[in-house]
Structure prediction request, 413 residues.
Amino acid sequence: MIKAIYGTKDIFSPEVFKWQQIEQLVRNVFKNFNYQEIRTPIFEETSLFKRGIGDSTDIVGKEMYTFTDKGGTSLTLKPEMTAAVVRAYIEHNFYKQSTLDKFYYISPMFRQERPQAGRLRQFHQFGAEALGVKSPELDAEMIYVAYYILKSFNLKNLAVKINSLGKNKEREIFKNELKQYLSSKLNLLSEDSKKRFETNVLRIFDSKDPNDIEIMQNAPNLLEYIDEESRKHFEQVQKLLNLLNVPFEIDHKLVRGLDYYTETTFEITSSSVGSQSALCGGGRYDGLVSQLGGPEIPGVGFAAGIERILLAIENEKSYEFSIPCLDYYIVRLDNNLIDKVYYYTTLLRNKNYTVDCDYSNRSVKAQMREANKANANYVIFIGGEEFTNGQCSIKNMKTGEQKLIPLDEIQYL
Ligand code: AMP
Prediction:
């Protein structure tokens, strides 16, 4: 038997209703914030992600689904959205037409990670990117909108962590200091961190190895290296978050796994989802547009994982998703009335009601079971003496009340 690929999931009823409601809420919130949806292809040229995300990152180094198509081009299923949005932004000259573009997306992403609770190989993110203006208000807006969406599901055990990575120049100085600090401790670091020491020393802050964590406790603090302008920017972000009542903590170790971040970075974690605790993450990426061949244009964004949000909601039992019910179920009392039943079913469907009927000649009892299972608000009975008299019964399934109406009135329901 052919099965779904390891680390991927089929999503169907009733689970799919939760997805629809999350997606609908996300769309509504972004509409209020005036973000426009962007949809980019599922695959891109591999070089986009290599250049955009960085060769030394786990995503590019180990996790991409890369293949060569029949034309010999190396393609990659998108592992994240920022590089793809920036590619589209440059390709379609958005920056020539407006000073600020605010995009949002909901999309599957692909990373060949080791699957576990909250970690899949095809997973789904919603997120946003704002390109064109460097303003701390936009940084705060990203954090706020992500926090607001999570709070809409009444999630309680959230922690908002923020940091500033400053600009490239200061970060390079800091990296040297960090290397100096670590050079005498190199043989104590994990194998992964030893590699990171060479490729991207900042990422050692991300290590989950307890030994590495202890060593990094006394590492120099990046926030002490950022310049005056970055400091002011970061302070304004904090001021706005306070104003908007977003509780946050500053975590100077929050460097995030992707190379393109500058200045503000942030993450929202939940203590309700186990080891994969990050529900969302993001930050500013002022060098990315030029790095991908566009002009010097700043950007900021975030991405949130839908599977993990669902896991947090489930574990906290914080939100009741509604399960849609049928408005009408039409029960056929006589088998020879199948066409009539189908006619009235379609009539009500065309009036924008959710309606169903039996398709397999089942008994009245079986049809009623189906109506109950589908949580129908009303059942209409077609057949018997009533039908001969040009009437039908309609039963309110919540109250049990039943009445006779002329068949002609079905069209006015
Ligand atoms: P990132 O793009 O790595 O910053 O991730 C942003 C968010 O996407 C994370 O906080 C998670 O909620 C989600 N995410 C990332 N990788 C996975 C994965 N393999 N499976 C499920 N969700 C993920």
